[in-house]
Design goal:
Layout: E1 3-15, E2 19-20, E3 24-28, E4 34-39, E5 48-56, E6 60-65, E7 80-93, E8 99-116, E9 128-133, E10 136-141, E11 144-150, E12 155-158, E13 161-162, H1 165-170
Antiparallel strand pairs: 1-2, 1-7, 3-6, 4-5, 6-9, 7-8, 8-9, 8-10, 10-11, 11-12, 12-13
Length: 171
């Protein structure tokens, strides 16, 4: 069944397997940008940028809050935590035009690097943030793991394919 993704119907974020974070407005997932090196030389007509297989630039997971009460304000900076983002991704079936919900899950682990309690104003949201330096990322769709990246353990898999396998085998 071909599906056209539409909107995120709803999501929740859980910390360390338990507490559900309340007051979340949006979440910005880590940007997975390969580290690159630029080459020039004989036989190359200019510069050639080469991504390094399995090596990523620093990745940050950001949670934006309208308000923060109780536990989120007490997160210690630099302590590694597990964050589990679970969302319902709406889609439309291209053959029947029926709508449905796909189960999406991101599991992220890393140290909290910023707790910003935001601003204050009368009758206004706080616009607070928590930023996490992502070390491990797993992405699931409808219960199937579609991506796994572990910065410190040499794991990078996409749709079951070990992207880093040849590099690991060479060393």
């Amino acid at each position: 069944m071909p599906r056209v993704p539409t909107v995120t119907a709803q999501f929740n974020v859980y910390v360390d397997g338990g507490q559900k974070l309340l007051g979340l407005a949006t979440v910005t997932l880590p940007n997975m940008q390969a580290q690159t090196e630029t080459f020039t030389g004989a036989g190359i007509m200019g510069e050639m940028e080469v991504p390094s297989r399995g090596h990523m630039g620093a990745m940050t997971f950001t949670m934006n809050f309208r308000s923060m009460l109780d536990d989120p304000l007490t997160y210690a900076i630099s302590i590694a935590r597990n964050f589990d983002l679970r969302s319902a991704q709406s889609y439309e079936d291209t053959t029947t035009y029926d709508r449905g919900e796909a189960k999406e899950r991101y599991s992220l682990r890393g140290p909290v690097k910023v707790v910003n309690p935001g601003t204050r104003g009368p009758h206004a949201a706080w616009d607070a943030t928590i930023e996490v330096a992502a070390r491990r990322i797993e992405h699931y769709m409808d219960g199937k793991k579609v991506m796994e990246f572990d910065l410190l353990n040499g794991v990078y898999k996409v749709n079951g394919v070990d992207v880093y396998k040849d590099v690991a085998a060479a060393v």
